[in-house]
């Protein structure tokens, strides 16, 4: 499965490794299924929706870290069995990290890229957790071990830099000064290539110092993310380790750069359609990752021999800095991390495809010579020439004092330059050590405070950034908010945080929090309006989404595991407080809680992920005075297709203008894109300060606005089974919204009719639907009225249309628009015709419903128009359906001779068989009559048979009437069943309310049972009466 690290140093192609992590807590709770399998260097992924569909890939290294491991006494995750397949951190470093280190020591540039969706294990592989150290800290430890072992033969200098790229801005995470609004600039030099101007380079002489600098950078990253309202999963982190090796005896210097890159989350948006946003989706926040994909694709095509005109390195900051790593002077490794869960199929497949392209890239690495060492050699060479000239002048006895002075001055200047270059490293190292001592003192002080006082610590979406910020609540009262002008204030930043947001009180070893008027404070998922006492491990949300975990006094800490209170826990708690949790979602859909549908789980976690983003969007709308509200909804939660099967669920965001009541529905992908655009506007107009651009945006560039469109409000089902018996149906159907709300009541009819549109009578009702096969069927859909339109009740300037699509009609049809009326008359009639009813149409009628879609109109949006392209009509202006059978009918009429003759021959054979069968039946009947009429005679028996034959038409009509009554009765039963499914207790119901709900539910259930029993009993009685009358009249009972 793995090759040795030294083998990698002899090749210049990009090496790609893939690592599969274990299930996380939410995936285990959801009962997720593993869809990844691995053998040797091959990896395959299975489509959970189609198990027969799987994709296979081959990579340089593959690591199975999903199962087969245990934790030893030191806290390390190791294989359960010696030689097991589980790949621990040590084995990953042996293959990847050791090769990177060997390349750097040989003088090559080396790069390690980590790629994958958020939460797939990138940070664990790169940084690690606890004793399970990742590639970066282990590489640093081994680097300094190598330096110590080689200090007799060379002098080594190590510089450490750490930066973040967010929204195309470069942030120095080790900078001592406050960050600039525009970030650091990336410049280009002919020798150095692209570099970050002003990036701090810190000298290091130990792995402990590097670890401290990483902690400092992480703290800066967390604070910056909070201040800038940035999502850390959308940022790239780069660590640059510069290694300089000076070989004094050989007068050789090798200099190499090690780039360790943790790329932003690569997740793709699940979208229900091909919706395109009018505002470009490739915003600056996505630009780097998109451009990186384009660069990798171009380089991969070049390797395959395709003509590549341009490689877009310059299109983003990230690709500029990684130019040497991709197709340039570097030995490069990419590690792609995967989630094995079925709900992450799309993201995992995308990651594998990305990694497959990357492995085709070839680099041209060379050993680097330091420009500084070259300068020293040049200065020494020049000094040697000057000394030679001085000695010659002394031997010749010249007295040219001016020339001698000038030579000695140049000699002194060069020696000073050499000394300055050689002592620069020591000076930088001393300065770095002083900073390190200051940082160490700060950390020591923080640890001491943790053992003395309660505090709150930040919880971030990125687990690596959680617990970095700690705010201590000492004795007395402490104001928390934006203001930091008081010695008893705790300063925090973030959306929705007020100058004075809340007050902490620590009195008599009891800590409480009181929100200031107008500020938002949530404790354990519930917003508070007055002072409340805090308990150890309480969860706090301040403002829009500043999440903190309260840690009580040391005596209250009993060594419990705090790690379960992660970012997902906070958001799940907030969702549960709103009445949205996985169990209720499964209950609504009829799934058992321990076996939830994977599609429901995906929707649930999408909802949890988008909740904080919606809260932040609402806060930005308030501060920017946009007057727009955002609300999460679950699309198709209570909706089904024409067969009654549940539709695929998805997340949508309802956008409402508070003033005009205009409404938009945005897909998840569109909202995420707009959210990042909103952040850019917010940064420019609010965070930017006094000099920021505060001019109002043009409407076409405003991410809070969109042109108005029709909205899908809900659907109703009109079951078609009665048409198979040619029984008319008149029904009041309920239009149900995406989340199960009643949007309207629709009065509709299905009327079997003649080709000219005349309704059929009771004599035309069929007992056996198969009698329709091969015959013409005409029926009319009549939409009479729509009652109780909730959409129009909310705003009278709205309208509606009804859309529907019957069987194989190529396009949906729409009723004319009706406006400004809560109970509009539709009076819409459409006739459909099947020229020869096929078995497919008959099956459709018996098992499907006609889905009637309710569409909402707003002033300014275009009405929906029926597209008649591809629709065929009869002479009576009836729409032809079942076109396959119709075309067969037309082909038969046109006289295709071979088929016609064959069909006639078959019909003749069939007719002969029917005649023979009829003759046999007749003979059997005659024999039976002779046996039964031995006493009464043949004549009386014939008369009885004639009377029995005359009864058949009337019996069939009675059967049809009984069926019609039964179908009408079942319509009300079906409505009662729908009411039962939607009948739920209120989330705020107390014990008395729950008792009332149980009583109401019992009554509804009893009513449903009685209606169902009455329908079935009535049908049984009617059938029994018909049979009894038939037998009495036929003379069987005397």
Automatic annotation (TrEMBL):
It holds the Pfam family Kinesin. Keywords: ATP-binding, Coiled coil, Membrane, Mitochondrion, Motor protein, Nucleotide-binding, Transport. CDD domains: FHA_KIF28P. GO terms for biological process: microtubule-based movement; system development. Residues 13-361 form the Kinesin motor domain. Its main location: mitochondrion. SMART domains: KISc. It is a peripheral membrane protein. GO terms for molecular function: ATP binding; microtubule binding; microtubule motor activity. GO terms for cellular component: mitochondrial membrane. Residues 896-948 form a coiled coil. It comes from the Eukaryota. ATP binds at residues 116-123. It is found in: Mitochondrion membrane. SUPFAM superfamilies: P-loop containing nucleoside triphosphate hydrolases, SMAD/FHA domain. InterPro entries: Kinesin_motor_dom, Kinesin_motor_dom_sf, P-loop_NTPase, SMAD_FHA_dom_sf. Belongs to the TRAFAC class myosin-kinesin ATPase superfamily. Kinesin family. Microtubule-dependent motor protein required for mitochondrion morphology and transport of mitochondria in neuronal cells. This is Kinesin-like protein 6. It comes from Cirrhinus molitorella.
